[in-house]
Amino acid sequence: MWDQQTLAVGWGDFFYAGYFHTMSSDPWFLSDVLMIPFVGFSIVTAIKLFLLISCLLLAGAFLLFFRALDLPPRTSAVLLLLAFFANPQFLGRILLGRPFTIMSAITIVILMAIITRRFLLLGILMAVAVLLSQLFVFPLLLSLGGTVWYLVSGQRKNAQRLFLALLLGVSAGLLIHPLPGAYLHYLFTVFPRIPFLKTLHLGTEMGSAMGNATTSIVMLGIIALLHITLFARGHKHQAFASGLLFLDALLIFFGIAFFLWIRAIDIFWPLLIVTLAMLISIDPHIIEETMRKILPRNVAQSRTPLYIIGAYCTCVILSAAVGFYIANTANNLDAFAESLTSIPPNSHVMNVDWHLIPPELAVRPDLIYATGIDPSFNYVADDAGGYELLDLLYNAPIIQRRPTVIDGDAWTKQLLIYYPLTDFISIDRKRYDSFLPALRNAKQLAEWTNTGSLAIFAVQNREEL
Predict the structure, then answer these.
(1) CA geometry: angle 268, 85, 51, nearest 5 deg
(2) Would you tell me how many other CB atoms lie within 10 Å of the CB of residue 55?
Protein backbone atom coordinates (compact mmCIF):
# COMPACT_ATOMS: atom_id res chain seq x y z
CA MET A 1 0.00 0.00 0.00
CA TRP A 2 2.76 2.44 0.99
CA ASP A 3 4.93 1.67 -2.03
CA GLN A 4 2.06 1.83 -4.52
CA GLN A 5 0.37 4.80 -2.81
CA THR A 6 -3.02 3.11 -2.98
CA LEU A 7 -5.28 1.26 -0.55
CA ALA A 8 -6.67 -1.04 -3.25
CA VAL A 9 -4.00 -3.72 -2.94
CA GLY A 10 -5.16 -7.34 -3.05
CA TRP A 11 -3.32 -10.42 -1.87
CA GLY A 12 -3.23 -11.56 -5.48
CA ASP A 13 -0.23 -9.27 -5.98
CA PHE A 14 1.85 -11.81 -4.05
CA PHE A 15 0.62 -15.07 -5.64
CA TYR A 16 0.65 -16.63 -9.08
CA ALA A 17 -1.58 -19.58 -8.13
CA GLY A 18 -4.45 -20.37 -5.77
CA TYR A 19 -7.66 -18.51 -4.97
CA PHE A 20 -6.20 -15.05 -4.42
CA HIS A 21 -4.49 -15.18 -7.81
CA THR A 22 -7.84 -15.69 -9.51
CA MET A 23 -9.84 -13.35 -7.25
CA SER A 24 -7.53 -10.83 -5.61
CA SER A 25 -8.97 -9.34 -2.43
CA ASP A 26 -7.76 -8.12 0.96
CA PRO A 27 -9.71 -9.72 3.82
CA TRP A 28 -7.41 -7.91 6.30
CA PHE A 29 -7.75 -4.45 4.73
CA LEU A 30 -7.91 -2.24 7.83
CA SER A 31 -5.35 -4.41 9.63
CA ASP A 32 -2.95 -3.73 6.76
CA VAL A 33 -3.76 -0.01 6.88
CA LEU A 34 -2.97 0.05 10.61
CA MET A 35 0.51 -1.27 9.81
CA ILE A 36 1.32 1.71 7.53
CA PRO A 37 2.57 3.95 10.39
CA PHE A 38 5.27 1.37 11.10
CA VAL A 39 6.74 1.09 7.59
CA GLY A 40 9.81 3.03 8.70
CA PHE A 41 10.78 0.29 11.15
CA SER A 42 12.24 -3.13 10.48
CA ILE A 43 9.54 -5.75 9.92
CA VAL A 44 10.19 -7.41 13.29
CA THR A 45 9.99 -4.10 15.17
CA ALA A 46 6.87 -3.10 13.23
CA ILE A 47 5.07 -6.32 14.14
CA LYS A 48 6.06 -5.93 17.80
CA LEU A 49 4.69 -2.38 17.87
CA PHE A 50 1.47 -3.50 16.18
CA LEU A 51 1.21 -6.33 18.70
CA LEU A 52 1.74 -3.97 21.63
CA ILE A 53 -0.96 -1.56 20.43
CA SER A 54 -3.33 -4.47 19.79
CA CYS A 55 -2.84 -5.78 23.33
CA LEU A 56 -3.41 -2.30 24.78
CA LEU A 57 -6.67 -2.06 22.83
CA LEU A 58 -7.73 -5.47 24.13
CA ALA A 59 -6.91 -4.47 27.71
CA GLY A 60 -8.87 -1.24 27.22
CA ALA A 61 -11.87 -3.19 25.90
CA PHE A 62 -11.90 -5.46 28.96
CA LEU A 63 -11.60 -2.49 31.31
CA LEU A 64 -14.49 -0.71 29.55
CA PHE A 65 -16.66 -3.78 30.06
CA PHE A 66 -15.62 -4.11 33.71
CA ARG A 67 -16.33 -0.41 34.27
CA ALA A 68 -19.81 -0.79 32.76
CA LEU A 69 -20.43 -3.47 35.41
CA ASP A 70 -19.09 -1.21 38.23
CA LEU A 71 -16.49 -3.75 39.29
CA PRO A 72 -13.92 -2.69 41.91
CA PRO A 73 -10.41 -1.91 40.55
CA ARG A 74 -8.85 -4.88 42.36
CA THR A 75 -11.37 -7.30 40.85
CA SER A 76 -10.85 -5.77 37.40
CA ALA A 77 -7.08 -6.21 37.75
CA VAL A 78 -7.39 -9.90 38.65
CA LEU A 79 -9.81 -10.51 35.77
CA LEU A 80 -7.45 -8.73 33.37
CA LEU A 81 -4.60 -10.93 34.58
CA LEU A 82 -6.71 -14.02 33.90
CA ALA A 83 -7.78 -12.71 30.50
CA PHE A 84 -4.23 -12.28 29.23
CA PHE A 85 -2.17 -14.90 31.01
CA ALA A 86 -4.36 -17.77 32.24
CA ASN A 87 -4.95 -19.44 28.87
CA PRO A 88 -1.84 -20.54 26.90
CA GLN A 89 -3.77 -20.86 23.62
CA PHE A 90 -5.27 -17.37 23.87
CA LEU A 91 -1.93 -15.85 24.88
CA GLY A 92 -0.30 -17.53 21.89
CA ARG A 93 -2.94 -16.13 19.56
CA ILE A 94 -2.68 -12.53 20.73
CA LEU A 95 1.13 -12.67 20.41
CA LEU A 96 0.99 -13.58 16.71
CA GLY A 97 0.69 -9.93 15.69
CA ARG A 98 -2.39 -10.54 13.52
CA PRO A 99 -5.89 -8.97 13.45
CA PHE A 100 -7.27 -11.52 15.94
CA THR A 101 -6.45 -9.39 18.99
CA ILE A 102 -8.13 -6.21 17.75
CA MET A 103 -11.15 -8.24 16.63
CA SER A 104 -11.43 -9.71 20.14
CA ALA A 105 -11.30 -6.17 21.55
CA ILE A 106 -14.02 -4.97 19.18
CA THR A 107 -16.19 -7.97 20.04
CA ILE A 108 -15.96 -7.23 23.76
CA VAL A 109 -17.00 -3.59 23.27
CA ILE A 110 -19.83 -4.66 20.94
CA LEU A 111 -21.02 -7.06 23.64
CA MET A 112 -20.95 -4.19 26.13
CA ALA A 113 -22.90 -2.05 23.65
CA ILE A 114 -25.59 -4.74 23.35
CA ILE A 115 -25.99 -5.10 27.11
CA THR A 116 -25.95 -1.34 27.76
CA ARG A 117 -28.09 -0.54 24.68
CA ARG A 118 -25.55 1.69 22.91
CA PHE A 119 -26.62 0.87 19.39
CA LEU A 120 -24.85 3.74 17.62
CA LEU A 121 -21.55 2.53 19.07
CA LEU A 122 -22.39 -1.01 17.91
CA GLY A 123 -23.03 0.15 14.35
CA ILE A 124 -19.75 2.07 14.17
CA LEU A 125 -17.77 -0.83 15.57
CA MET A 126 -19.38 -3.29 13.14
CA ALA A 127 -18.29 -1.10 10.23
CA VAL A 128 -14.74 -1.10 11.64
CA ALA A 129 -14.88 -4.87 12.15
CA VAL A 130 -15.94 -5.50 8.53
CA LEU A 131 -12.95 -3.48 7.33
CA LEU A 132 -10.56 -5.03 9.84
CA SER A 133 -10.89 -8.70 8.94
CA GLN A 134 -13.19 -11.40 7.64
CA LEU A 135 -13.47 -12.49 11.28
CA PHE A 136 -16.15 -9.81 11.69
CA VAL A 137 -18.51 -12.79 11.35
CA PHE A 138 -17.90 -13.47 15.06
CA PRO A 139 -19.26 -10.13 16.36
CA LEU A 140 -21.92 -10.36 13.62
CA LEU A 141 -23.18 -13.67 15.05
CA LEU A 142 -22.93 -12.26 18.56
CA SER A 143 -25.02 -9.23 17.56
CA LEU A 144 -27.64 -11.41 15.91
CA GLY A 145 -27.79 -13.34 19.17
CA GLY A 146 -28.36 -10.03 20.95
CA THR A 147 -31.30 -9.33 18.66
CA VAL A 148 -32.82 -12.69 19.57
CA TRP A 149 -32.22 -12.00 23.28
CA TYR A 150 -34.10 -8.71 23.08
CA LEU A 151 -37.00 -10.38 21.26
CA VAL A 152 -37.20 -13.21 23.79
CA SER A 153 -37.13 -10.73 26.69
CA GLY A 154 -39.99 -8.71 25.15
CA GLN A 155 -37.86 -5.71 24.12
CA ARG A 156 -38.99 -5.53 20.52
CA LYS A 157 -37.94 -1.90 19.91
CA ASN A 158 -34.45 -2.56 21.20
CA ALA A 159 -34.25 -5.63 18.95
CA GLN A 160 -35.21 -3.51 15.94
CA ARG A 161 -32.71 -0.80 16.82
CA LEU A 162 -29.92 -3.31 17.30
CA PHE A 163 -30.65 -5.03 14.01
CA LEU A 164 -30.82 -1.70 12.16
CA ALA A 165 -27.49 -0.59 13.65
CA LEU A 166 -25.99 -3.95 12.70
CA LEU A 167 -27.29 -3.75 9.14
CA LEU A 168 -26.08 -0.18 8.64
CA GLY A 169 -22.67 -0.95 10.16
CA VAL A 170 -22.02 -3.98 7.98
CA SER A 171 -23.26 -2.15 4.87
CA ALA A 172 -21.06 0.86 5.60
CA GLY A 173 -18.00 -1.35 6.06
CA LEU A 174 -18.58 -3.11 2.75
CA LEU A 175 -19.15 0.20 0.91
CA ILE A 176 -15.93 1.71 2.31
CA HIS A 177 -13.82 -1.37 1.48
CA PRO A 178 -11.66 -0.63 -1.61
CA LEU A 179 -12.31 -4.09 -3.12
CA PRO A 180 -15.92 -4.81 -2.07
CA GLY A 181 -16.79 -7.20 -4.93
CA ALA A 182 -13.78 -9.45 -4.41
CA TYR A 183 -14.26 -9.27 -0.61
CA LEU A 184 -17.90 -10.37 -0.90
CA HIS A 185 -16.93 -13.17 -3.27
CA TYR A 186 -14.40 -14.40 -0.73
CA LEU A 187 -16.87 -14.11 2.16
CA PHE A 188 -19.63 -16.09 0.44
CA THR A 189 -17.69 -18.68 -1.56
CA VAL A 190 -14.45 -19.44 0.30
CA PHE A 191 -14.42 -18.27 3.91
CA PRO A 192 -17.44 -20.32 5.10
CA ARG A 193 -16.29 -23.36 3.15
CA ILE A 194 -12.76 -23.81 4.47
CA PRO A 195 -13.60 -24.77 8.09
CA PHE A 196 -15.56 -27.76 6.85
CA LEU A 197 -12.80 -29.16 4.61
CA LYS A 198 -11.81 -31.58 7.34
CA THR A 199 -10.17 -34.02 4.94
CA LEU A 200 -7.47 -31.46 4.10
CA HIS A 201 -4.33 -30.76 6.10
CA LEU A 202 -5.32 -27.28 7.26
CA GLY A 203 -3.56 -25.04 9.75
CA THR A 204 -3.73 -25.99 13.42
CA GLU A 205 -6.20 -23.17 14.09
CA MET A 206 -8.77 -25.06 12.03
CA GLY A 207 -8.37 -28.19 14.13
CA SER A 208 -10.42 -29.25 17.13
CA ALA A 209 -9.62 -27.92 20.59
CA MET A 210 -9.89 -31.41 22.05
CA GLY A 211 -6.71 -32.08 24.01
CA ASN A 212 -5.84 -28.37 24.18
CA ALA A 213 -8.75 -27.02 26.19
CA THR A 214 -7.81 -27.74 29.81
CA THR A 215 -7.80 -24.11 30.92
CA SER A 216 -11.07 -23.34 29.15
CA ILE A 217 -12.74 -26.42 30.65
CA VAL A 218 -11.55 -25.44 34.15
CA MET A 219 -12.94 -21.93 33.65
CA LEU A 220 -16.23 -23.40 32.42
CA GLY A 221 -16.37 -25.52 35.58
CA ILE A 222 -15.74 -22.46 37.77
CA ILE A 223 -18.48 -20.51 36.01
CA ALA A 224 -20.89 -23.45 36.41
CA LEU A 225 -20.17 -23.56 40.17
CA LEU A 226 -20.72 -19.82 40.44
CA HIS A 227 -24.06 -20.18 38.66
CA ILE A 228 -25.15 -22.74 41.24
CA THR A 229 -24.18 -20.38 44.05
CA LEU A 230 -25.89 -17.45 42.34
CA PHE A 231 -29.21 -19.24 41.97
CA ALA A 232 -28.95 -20.73 45.46
CA ARG A 233 -28.63 -17.17 46.81
CA GLY A 234 -31.83 -16.10 45.04
CA HIS A 235 -30.51 -14.04 42.13
CA LYS A 236 -32.55 -15.63 39.33
CA HIS A 237 -34.28 -12.38 38.35
CA GLN A 238 -31.00 -10.45 38.21
CA ALA A 239 -29.48 -13.19 36.04
CA PHE A 240 -32.11 -12.59 33.36
CA ALA A 241 -32.33 -8.81 33.67
CA SER A 242 -28.56 -8.26 33.58
CA GLY A 243 -27.99 -10.28 30.42
CA LEU A 244 -26.23 -13.18 32.14
CA LEU A 245 -28.44 -15.76 30.44
CA PHE A 246 -27.63 -14.10 27.11
CA LEU A 247 -23.93 -14.56 27.87
CA ASP A 248 -24.62 -18.18 28.83
CA ALA A 249 -26.25 -18.80 25.45
CA LEU A 250 -23.25 -17.25 23.71
CA LEU A 251 -20.92 -19.46 25.74
CA ILE A 252 -22.76 -22.57 24.58
CA PHE A 253 -22.67 -21.50 20.92
CA PHE A 254 -19.05 -20.38 20.83
CA GLY A 255 -18.03 -23.25 23.10
CA ILE A 256 -19.25 -25.72 20.48
CA ALA A 257 -17.43 -23.71 17.82
CA PHE A 258 -14.26 -23.76 19.95
CA PHE A 259 -14.26 -27.53 20.32
CA LEU A 260 -14.74 -27.86 16.55
CA TRP A 261 -12.24 -25.14 15.53
CA ILE A 262 -9.68 -23.94 18.03
CA ARG A 263 -9.52 -20.52 16.39
CA ALA A 264 -12.82 -19.70 18.11
CA ILE A 265 -10.69 -19.19 21.24
CA ASP A 266 -10.44 -15.55 20.06
CA ILE A 267 -14.07 -15.07 21.15
CA PHE A 268 -14.70 -17.98 23.52
CA TRP A 269 -12.04 -17.07 26.10
CA PRO A 270 -13.06 -13.37 26.32
CA LEU A 271 -16.66 -14.56 26.71
CA LEU A 272 -15.62 -16.72 29.66
CA ILE A 273 -13.90 -13.74 31.29
CA VAL A 274 -16.80 -11.31 30.80
CA THR A 275 -19.28 -13.95 32.04
CA LEU A 276 -17.19 -14.34 35.16
CA ALA A 277 -17.21 -10.54 35.52
CA MET A 278 -20.99 -10.46 35.12
CA LEU A 279 -21.45 -13.08 37.86
CA ILE A 280 -19.31 -11.04 40.24
CA SER A 281 -21.18 -7.84 39.38
CA ILE A 282 -24.53 -9.47 40.21
CA ASP A 283 -23.25 -10.86 43.53
CA PRO A 284 -19.94 -9.35 44.73
CA HIS A 285 -19.60 -12.09 47.37
CA ILE A 286 -20.16 -15.01 45.03
CA ILE A 287 -16.50 -16.05 44.89
CA GLU A 288 -16.16 -16.12 48.68
CA GLU A 289 -19.41 -18.03 49.13
CA THR A 290 -18.44 -20.63 46.53
CA MET A 291 -14.97 -21.13 48.04
CA ARG A 292 -16.48 -21.63 51.51
CA LYS A 293 -18.52 -24.51 50.13
CA ILE A 294 -15.75 -26.35 48.28
CA LEU A 295 -12.52 -25.44 50.12
CA PRO A 296 -11.30 -25.77 53.70
CA ARG A 297 -12.15 -22.66 55.73
CA ASN A 298 -8.52 -21.66 56.33
CA VAL A 299 -7.83 -21.78 52.59
CA ALA A 300 -11.05 -20.05 51.53
CA GLN A 301 -10.44 -17.13 53.88
CA SER A 302 -6.78 -16.67 52.95
CA ARG A 303 -4.99 -15.18 49.94
CA THR A 304 -3.88 -18.64 48.82
CA PRO A 305 -6.17 -18.74 45.74
CA LEU A 306 -4.69 -15.40 44.55
CA TYR A 307 -1.16 -16.73 45.03
CA ILE A 308 -2.07 -19.84 43.04
CA ILE A 309 -3.48 -17.69 40.21
CA GLY A 310 -0.34 -15.56 40.19
CA ALA A 311 1.98 -18.57 40.16
CA TYR A 312 0.01 -20.26 37.38
CA CYS A 313 -0.03 -17.15 35.18
CA THR A 314 3.71 -16.75 35.72
CA CYS A 315 4.26 -20.32 34.49
CA VAL A 316 2.14 -19.63 31.41
CA ILE A 317 4.17 -16.49 30.64
CA LEU A 318 7.49 -18.31 31.03
CA SER A 319 6.27 -21.21 28.89
CA ALA A 320 5.17 -18.79 26.14
CA ALA A 321 8.52 -17.01 26.29
CA VAL A 322 10.42 -20.29 25.88
CA GLY A 323 8.11 -21.36 23.05
CA PHE A 324 8.61 -18.13 21.13
CA TYR A 325 12.37 -18.29 21.67
CA ILE A 326 12.45 -21.77 20.14
CA ALA A 327 10.18 -20.68 17.27
CA ASN A 328 12.33 -17.61 16.58
CA THR A 329 15.45 -19.77 16.48
CA ALA A 330 13.83 -22.17 14.00
CA ASN A 331 12.50 -19.33 11.82
CA ASN A 332 15.46 -16.97 11.81
CA LEU A 333 14.92 -14.41 9.05
CA ASP A 334 18.62 -14.33 8.21
CA ALA A 335 18.50 -18.04 7.38
CA PHE A 336 15.58 -17.47 4.98
CA ALA A 337 17.30 -14.48 3.41
CA GLU A 338 20.40 -16.60 2.83
CA SER A 339 18.33 -19.11 0.85
CA LEU A 340 16.28 -16.64 -1.19
CA THR A 341 18.68 -13.76 -1.78
CA SER A 342 20.05 -14.97 -5.12
CA ILE A 343 16.65 -15.49 -6.79
CA PRO A 344 15.97 -12.78 -9.41
CA PRO A 345 13.18 -10.27 -8.56
CA ASN A 346 9.62 -11.05 -9.74
CA SER A 347 10.43 -14.77 -10.10
CA HIS A 348 7.61 -17.27 -9.53
CA VAL A 349 8.49 -19.44 -6.56
CA MET A 350 6.66 -22.66 -5.71
CA ASN A 351 6.97 -22.53 -1.91
CA VAL A 352 6.07 -26.10 -0.99
CA ASP A 353 5.79 -25.21 2.71
CA TRP A 354 2.74 -22.91 2.69
CA HIS A 355 3.12 -22.09 6.40
CA LEU A 356 6.53 -20.46 5.77
CA ILE A 357 5.04 -17.64 3.70
CA PRO A 358 5.47 -15.03 6.52
CA PRO A 359 9.30 -15.24 6.71
CA GLU A 360 9.55 -15.68 2.94
CA LEU A 361 7.52 -12.54 2.28
CA ALA A 362 9.39 -10.72 5.02
CA VAL A 363 12.79 -11.18 3.36
CA ARG A 364 11.72 -11.28 -0.33
CA PRO A 365 8.45 -9.41 -0.88
CA ASP A 366 9.50 -8.87 -4.50
CA LEU A 367 8.98 -12.56 -5.36
CA ILE A 368 5.64 -14.07 -6.39
CA TYR A 369 4.61 -17.24 -4.56
CA ALA A 370 2.33 -20.18 -5.27
CA THR A 371 1.02 -21.03 -1.80
CA GLY A 372 0.38 -19.26 1.46
CA ILE A 373 -2.07 -18.23 4.17
CA ASP A 374 -3.61 -21.72 4.12
CA PRO A 375 -3.22 -24.70 1.74
CA SER A 376 -6.96 -24.85 1.21
CA PHE A 377 -6.78 -21.73 -0.97
CA ASN A 378 -5.10 -23.86 -3.63
CA TYR A 379 -7.75 -26.54 -3.22
CA VAL A 380 -10.77 -24.22 -3.54
CA ALA A 381 -9.36 -22.58 -6.68
CA ASP A 382 -10.43 -25.65 -8.70
CA ASP A 383 -6.94 -27.01 -8.26
CA ALA A 384 -7.58 -30.10 -6.15
CA GLY A 385 -4.99 -32.07 -8.12
CA GLY A 386 -2.28 -29.52 -7.41
CA TYR A 387 -3.19 -29.47 -3.73
CA GLU A 388 -3.03 -33.28 -3.51
CA LEU A 389 0.38 -33.24 -5.17
CA LEU A 390 1.70 -30.85 -2.52
CA ASP A 391 -0.10 -32.79 0.19
CA LEU A 392 2.13 -35.78 -0.56
CA LEU A 393 4.98 -33.82 0.97
CA TYR A 394 3.06 -32.41 3.93
CA ASN A 395 3.09 -35.88 5.47
CA ALA A 396 6.78 -35.58 6.31
CA PRO A 397 7.07 -38.65 8.58
CA ILE A 398 6.29 -40.98 5.66
CA ILE A 399 8.99 -39.37 3.54
CA GLN A 400 11.48 -39.50 6.40
CA ARG A 401 10.90 -43.22 6.87
CA ARG A 402 10.71 -44.05 3.17
CA PRO A 403 12.56 -41.37 1.17
CA THR A 404 11.91 -43.14 -2.12
CA VAL A 405 8.14 -43.35 -1.61
CA ILE A 406 7.76 -40.43 -4.07
CA ASP A 407 9.51 -40.38 -7.42
CA GLY A 408 11.13 -36.93 -7.56
CA ASP A 409 11.15 -36.76 -11.37
CA ALA A 410 7.49 -37.77 -11.75
CA TRP A 411 6.45 -35.47 -8.89
CA THR A 412 8.23 -32.51 -10.49
CA LYS A 413 6.63 -33.13 -13.92
CA GLN A 414 3.16 -33.20 -12.37
CA LEU A 415 3.90 -30.12 -10.30
CA LEU A 416 4.91 -28.13 -13.38
CA ILE A 417 1.76 -29.24 -15.18
CA TYR A 418 -0.41 -27.83 -12.39
CA TYR A 419 1.83 -24.79 -11.84
CA PRO A 420 3.40 -24.09 -15.26
CA LEU A 421 4.56 -20.56 -14.37
CA THR A 422 6.94 -21.85 -11.71
CA ASP A 423 10.54 -20.63 -12.00
CA PHE A 424 11.89 -21.94 -8.70
CA ILE A 425 10.91 -24.47 -6.05
CA SER A 426 11.66 -23.77 -2.39
CA ILE A 427 11.46 -26.52 0.20
CA ASP A 428 12.32 -26.77 3.89
CA ARG A 429 15.79 -28.34 4.10
CA LYS A 430 15.36 -29.82 7.56
CA ARG A 431 11.81 -31.13 7.18
CA TYR A 432 12.41 -32.80 3.81
CA ASP A 433 16.09 -33.64 4.08
CA SER A 434 15.56 -37.23 2.99
CA PHE A 435 13.53 -36.15 -0.07
CA LEU A 436 16.07 -33.67 -1.43
CA PRO A 437 18.15 -36.36 -3.26
CA ALA A 438 15.02 -37.29 -5.24
CA LEU A 439 14.59 -33.68 -6.32
CA ARG A 440 18.27 -33.42 -7.28
CA ASN A 441 17.71 -36.32 -9.68
CA ALA A 442 14.71 -34.67 -11.34
CA LYS A 443 15.51 -33.78 -14.98
CA GLN A 444 13.49 -30.56 -14.87
CA LEU A 445 15.34 -29.19 -11.82
CA ALA A 446 18.79 -27.83 -11.07
CA GLU A 447 19.83 -27.16 -7.51
CA TRP A 448 20.15 -23.40 -7.10
CA THR A 449 21.23 -23.16 -3.47
CA ASN A 450 21.27 -25.40 -0.44
CA THR A 451 22.14 -22.97 2.34
CA GLY A 452 20.03 -21.34 5.01
CA SER A 453 16.57 -22.64 5.89
CA LEU A 454 15.49 -23.62 2.38
CA ALA A 455 16.72 -25.68 -0.51
CA ILE A 456 16.09 -23.86 -3.80
CA PHE A 457 15.74 -25.59 -7.18
CA ALA A 458 15.56 -23.80 -10.52
CA VAL A 459 13.22 -25.11 -13.22
CA GLN A 460 14.90 -26.12 -16.49
CA ASN A 461 14.22 -28.27 -19.57
CA ARG A 462 10.58 -27.24 -19.84
CA GLU A 463 10.46 -28.62 -23.36
CA GLU A 464 10.63 -32.16 -21.93
CA LEU A 465 7.30 -31.83 -20.14
Answers:
(1) 85
(2) 17
3-state secondary structure of 421: coil
Between CA 4 and CA 363 the distance in angstroms is 19
Instruction: Give yes or no: residues 289 and 346 share one domain.
Output: no
Task: Give me the count of residues in the chain.
Answer: 465
How far is residue 322's CA from residue 89's CA, in Å, rounded to a whole number?
14
- Is the pTM higher than 0.90? The answer reads no
CB 165 within 8 A of CB 122: yes
> What CA–CA distance (Å, rounded) separates 69 from 92?
28
Mapped onto helix, strand or coil, the DSSP state of residue 18 is coil
Tell me: do 289 and 338 sit in the same domain: no
Alpha helices (H) in 40-134, listed in sequence order: 43-68, 73-85, 88-94, 100-116, 119-132
At 249-276, the pLDDT tens digits run 999 999 998 888 888 899 999 999 999 9
Q: Report d(CA 370, CA 235) in Å as an integer.
A: 58
Query: Dihedral sign, CA of 138, 184, 93, 387?
Result: positive
Q: Structural domain of residue 134, as residue ranges?
A: 11-294
132-189: per-residue pLDDT in tens?
998 899 999 999 999 999 999 889 999 999 999 999 999 999 999 988 888 898 888 8
Q: Which amino acid is at 285?
A: H
* Measured distance CA(251)–CA(271) in Å, rounded: 7
- Asked whether residue 138 is assigned to any structural domain, the reply reads yes
Same structural domain, 254 and 347: no
Sign of CA dihedral 115, 120, 126, 128: negative
- If asked whether residues 273 and 404 sit together in one domain, one would say no
337 and 289 in a single domain? The answer is no
CB 162 within 8 A of CB 122: yes
Cα–Cα distances in angstroms (integers) from residue 28 to residues 130, 212, 436, 438, in the given order: 9, 27, 36, 39
Burial label, 342 (beta-carbon count in 10 A; 0-12, 13-18, 19+):
exposed
Alpha-carbon distance of 117 to 110, in angstroms, equals: 10
